[in-house]
Amino acid sequence: MAQAYKTETGGGGQESDRRVPRLQRLLDSVRSDRRIWRRGIILAVCAVLLALVMVLHSQIPNAVGNFGSLNETFLPWLGVFIPPLLGLALLRRSATALIAVLVPAIVWLNLFSSLIFDKTGSGGDLTVATHNVNADNANPSGTARAVAASGADVVALEELTETAVPVYEKALAATYKYHSVQGTVGLWSKYPLSGVKAVDIKLGWTRAMRATVTAPGGQLAVYVAHLPSVRVKIEAGFTARQRDKSADALGAAISHEKLPKAALLGDLNGTMNDRSLNAVTAQMRSTQGAAGSGFGFSWPASFPMARIDQILVKGVEPVTSWTLPETGSDHLPIAARVKLADTAS
Description:
Layout lengths: L1 H17 L3 H11 L8 H15 L11 H7 L8 H11 L2 H22 L9 E7 L7 H9 L5 E5 L6 H8 L5 E5 L2 E5 L3 E6 L9 E8 L2 E9 L4 E3 L3 E3 L1 H15 L6 E6 L10 H4 L3 E2 H5 L17 E6 L2 E7 L10 E6 L6
Parallel strand pairs: 1-2, 7-10
Antiparallel strand pairs: 1-14, 2-4, 3-4, 5-6, 6-7, 8-9, 10-12, 11-12, 13-14
């Protein structure tokens, strides 16, 4: 009996040894690895630098190649470097690198986590849309019909050419009773327009306009703008001087608006993170940021990487914001529904 008891006890001990949790064995191996804190120093430095580029993006100077604005245009994409850094830290079995990778991950989430979640709502009384239709669009009538099919009450179009304007006018006439074209931008509306005028954004030709839309919910000052394009050149960096000058002029015009409710629809050739657009973005808010789902990238249409087309509002409550399907343009159209009417308290 005693021998049998001993045999069972020994067998049970062997079974217990086999059941030692894998995590415990991993922790034991980590404790025995004295180099775990010394490995991966370069990875850790890279992770910290990545975090600094994100958290101090507004401090990066524009003096050389406008690098600060270039970084801010594609700022959300810096997050793609975090998973590779994490993978390399695990491969190197470096505790130092693993902890360091947490820093850019936390910074990225702090900057952009609000854009990940769905903030779209319901209701509202006015739908607006904007689209850079592309001067080289081979199917302007199809593009016009696609935008009209969105159900928007007010549509802004940018990059209109003289020959394409009649095509857009004809294609949109059945849906929109009122419209005005100023230079290369135009506004189509189901509701009356008044106070229509060109807005000088210091270009020498017209690429911005302003009109009052009298909708059932009240009057809304609508600005349509197409700011100058920017270029990334090896010898000059991010060339955006004219865009920045025009943004300042547009911001000044909006700041003098007398109506309390206003919206800006257009291609700003810059994102909400770009400090060079502060003259505009400091006084208006993005419908995508307030009531969208995801980043709402609009350019380029084939593989959207940045939201340079914007719907910005002030004195108006955004309800929902979204990106429309691809048309014949190199930009995606975007739309938003807002609450224009004042709600009784």
